Structure prediction request, 297 residues.
Amino acid sequence: MRADDSLGQVLSGGSRSFSFELFPPKTADGERQLWQTVREIEALRPTFVSVTYGAGGSTQDRTVRLTGEIAADTTLTPVGHLTCVGASRDELREVVGQYAAAGVRTMLALRGDPPRGRDTAWVPHPDGLRHANELVELIRSLGSFSVGVAAFPEGHPESVDRDEDARVLALKQQAGAEFAVTQLFFRVEDYERMVDLAGRHGVTMPIVPGIMPVTNVAQIERFAALSGAQFPADLAARFHAVADDPEAVVRLGVDVAAEMSQRLLELGAPGLHFYTLNRSRSTIEVYQALGLGAATG
Ligand SMILES: Cc1cc2nc3c(=O)[nH]c(=O)nc-3n(C[C@H](O)[C@H](O)[C@H](O)COP(=O)(O)OP(=O)(O)OC[C@H]3O[C@@H](n4cnc5c(N)ncnc54)[C@H](O)[C@@H]3O)c2cc1C
Prediction:
């Protein structure tokens, strides 16, 4: 990536993007694990790494600090997530300023989930923003930032249908978003259908699919709660068949994610975004299975 290119320009430039999502840890042990992962990922020279913003804005300080440290102390391009939850417009402007001061030029603009859980209604801050497209607009109005947004191959849980999701993605693009990253999903067909529908609504920005290799069987049950993504029954059966062998579960997780990644790239996906949960082993193995990188341990 040339220093004067925005991430949006890089992603639209035709070369495939490979990226990793990290979260700010709460403990010293978590911090050590994270930095080991950061260094392993750095050796793969990904296009960017993104850092999540905790539910309800709970990790604001840690997210901004970690993203700034990645900008200052590594060769990686960091993307800082930002949500509208519990924040006034002034507070959101302040966080954007903190990102800018920390050397972060790219943000993922999200609405966020209701702080008391998905089943409760979304209520914006009285002086805040209702939707991600408004946050894109706000960030773009504050400087020359590159802004990405979320996309949902299985549909956003609050949307009436997939058509609404496609219209919303187009609104985000009109507001100035330059790329989208998807929620995790497990059926390539869902991504294909979403991209097709988005295209019919005028979306031209790259939509990077989000991939999470399964690393343990308990995770499968948590996926729906975490993301609203359905875990296909036939795939769940394959994992349950090896459930008593943790190593076999990890290997199957890598195989399934690598196969899905390969199909997505063949379909013309503009890259892959790996959800790492701050652990690099499986994602690095997927990366290698695709012939993309060398072993780093
Ligand atoms: C790649 C990725 C990264 C994420 N990172 C984080 C994170 O770091 N922290 C975190 O808390 N959450 C994160 N999330 C979760 C995200 O905040 C939730 O999925 C949230 O419910 C939706 O966010 P959004 O930005 O898509 O919201 P929106 O685009 O605002 O959409 C939310 C709902 O409102 C509808 N809608 C949107 N715009 C309009 C409009 N203008 N008018 C009417 N209806 C509209 C949509 O159809 C949808 O049903 C992430 C999700 C993804 C896919």
